[in-house]
Amino acid sequence: MPDSNLVIFMSHAGEDKERFVIKFSEYLLSKGIDVWLDKWEMLPGDSLVEKIFEEGLKNATAVIVVLSKNSINKKWVKEELKTAIIKRINTDSKLIPIILDNLQRNELPQAIQDTVWETITDTNNFIQSADRIIASLYGQKTKPNIGNLPEYANSEIEKVPNLTKIDTLVLKQICEIGIKNGFLFADGTKVLFELNKYEIPQDDIMDSIKILDGRYFIKASFDSMGFSHANVTVFGFQEYAKIFLPNYEDFKFAVASFLINNPPDFQESDIIAKELSIPLVIVNHIIDLFEENDFLKTQKLSGNTTIVFNISPELKRKLT
User: Is 82 part of a structural domain of the chain?
Assistant: First the structure.
């Protein structure tokens, strides 16, 4: 059923009726919008002025004026347009120009040059334009609904200092793959696969990997296929652990205490990890951190074990 609250007056030239106006009006009717079209509303003997101005335009809630090479200079169209403009000023009714025949802006009536119009270049292909006009008539915008943010934007994550959220997520993923591996190494394919869940654009991931490499959080390797793998540096894992390992400071204190309080034959990282119930990968990192600070010396063995020797008094002082 037509919308009884919405009546459209179609202002046009007779020459445009068959090629466009009737088809367009029929489409509006099919969408439940009533249309006042002279062909349908006027009978022989009716007064043109009375029917058009006192019935059609007076009762219309909106006017669509079809401007073309045919109608642009038509007296009746000009008069209908004047009435529609006055009605818009007095009642806030809508006035929607449809432009045919590639009319240029300077060819249009001055009074509608500040009005948004709908241009239709093919009079047999007007559905999209008609739907936009229908949306306008009902006060609806055709702008698509706002979707959900990418998962990385929704992630509540504390950022590593001087890194973006994406940089932090990439570093976190590389470190966590390394922890699962038992040594701080992450295969590139695995890293990219795990980061898929955050919906981060591939180019942004690669930018982050290069930034993390340049800032010495990781050592990244590339081959002909792209990102190959990454090793986490001592600095990079320390920055990760400060935020994402709640017991990190306790782990460091426990490893340092164990090294100071136990004899040399206990100074192997696998023994320390077992005695303290701390993952070996974290114990090895802490020992590497101590070595970088000149608190001790190490020797790497096969099987991911590190031997500690030459413990400096500085390490003991750090505990007091």
Answer: yes
**Model confidence over 197-247: pLDDT tens digits?**
999 999 999 999 999 999 999 999 999 989 999 999 999 999 999 999 999
Hey, what long-range contacts does 25-31 have (CB within 8 A, 24 or more apart)?
A: 27/126, 27/127, 27/130, 28/130, 28/134, 29/2, 31/130, 31/134
Which residues are 298's β-sheet partners?
308
Residue 264: CATH number of its domain: 1.10.10
Alpha-carbon distance 204 to 153, whole Å? 13
DSSP for residue 53: I
The per-residue pLDDT for range 88-117, each reduced to its tens digit, is: 767 778 888 898 988 887 788 777 777 788
β-partners of residue 305 are 301
Kindly list the distances between the CA atom of residue 227 and the CA atoms of 188, 206, 208, in Å, as whole numbers in the listed order: 6, 8, 12
3-state secondary structure of 63: strand
Verify that 171 and 108 share a domain, yes or no. no
- In the chain, the number of structural domains is 3
Residues 16, 125, single domain; the answer is yes
Residue 224 is part of a domain; what is its CATH number?
1.10.10.10
Name the pTM for this structure.
Answer: 0.60
Same domain, 108 and 20: yes
Q: How far apart are CA 294 and CA 296, in angstroms?
A: 6
Q: Distance of CA 225 to CAs 154, 188, 197, 228, 242, Å?
A: 31, 10, 22, 7, 33
For residues 161, 247, 279 and 160, what is the CA-based torsion angle, rounded to 10 degrees? -10
Distance in angstroms (rounded) separating the CA atoms of residues 106 and 165: 51
Decide if 70 is inside a domain: yes
Domain boundaries, position 199: 151-236
**In a domain? residue 144:** no
Closest C-alpha among 149, 216, 165, 226 to residue 191: 226
Q: Which of 91, 59, 96, 69 is nearest to 81 (CA)?
A: 96
Query: Are both 159 and 103 inside the same structural domain?
Result: no
